[in-house]
Amino acid sequence: MTQKTLAVIDDDLAVRQSLLWLLETPTLAVSGFDSGERFLALGEAAANFNCLIVDLRMSGISGIMLLEKIAQWPYCPPVIMLTAHGDVPHAVAAFKLGVADFLEKPFDDARLLALVDECLARDAQERERYQRRVRVAEALATLTEREREVMQHILAGLLNKQIAEVLSISMKTVEVHRARVFDKMGVKSAVELAGVITVLDEAGSKT
C-alpha cells in the first residue's frame, strides 16, 4: 500500500509531538512544522501532502492566513483546523476557504483519527480528478488552432461532411484533423471526447 503523508502545522511543540505520536502509522507518514512560514518554504512540494492539520492561532502567519495562501494553489489537500479559541467568525472564514473541519482543543482523539481517514479518502478522489484535469489541459494545449475548430464542431454533433462545409475544407482534411484530435486527446470516439472535455467543464463550474 502506498504511504500517505500528513503535515501538522502548529507552533505548540507539545501539540505537534502528541499529534505525531497519535497519527504516525506504517501507512501514514506525519511531518511537523512550527510555523506556516516553514511549511510554505517547501514550495510546490507542500501540495504533495495528502492532508494538513493547521492551528488557527500561530505566531507569524495565522492559520487563516495560511489557508488563504494555499487556497490559491492549483490543488489544495484537505485541511483540518485546530484552535483553543474557537469562535464563529473564524469558523465561517475557515469553511469559506474550504477547510474540511474545525476542531477545538482539547480534541477527541477518536474524532480526529476518523476525520483524518475521511480527509485521506477525500484527497484520493479529488487529487485523481485534479490530475485528470491536468492531463486533459495538457492534451488540449497540443492541439493546433484548426484541430480545436474541428473538435468544437465534433462536440456540437456535426458530421465530417458538415464540418468540411462549415470550415470550407475538404472532407479528407476533416478526417485527418479528426484522427489527430482523437489521438492527442486519447479517445476513440466523439462520445469519449465529450466525456474527457466534461472533466474541464466540471472544474470550471466549481470556480
TrEMBL record:
Transmembrane segments: none annotated. Residues 136-201 form the HTH luxR-type domain. CDD domains: LuxR_C_like. The keyword Chloroplast does not apply. SUPFAM superfamilies: C-terminal effector domain of the bipartite response regulators, CheY-like. It comes from the Bacteria. SMART domains: HTH_LUXR (SM00421), REC (SM00448). The keyword Metal-binding does not apply. Keywords: Coiled coil, DNA-binding, Phosphoprotein, Transcription, Transcription regulation. Residues 5-120 form the Response regulatory domain. Residues 120-147 form a coiled coil. PROSITE patterns: HTH_LUXR_1 (PS00622), HTH_LUXR_2 (PS50043), RESPONSE_REGULATORY (PS50110). The modification 4-aspartylphosphate is found at residue 55. This is Response regulator.
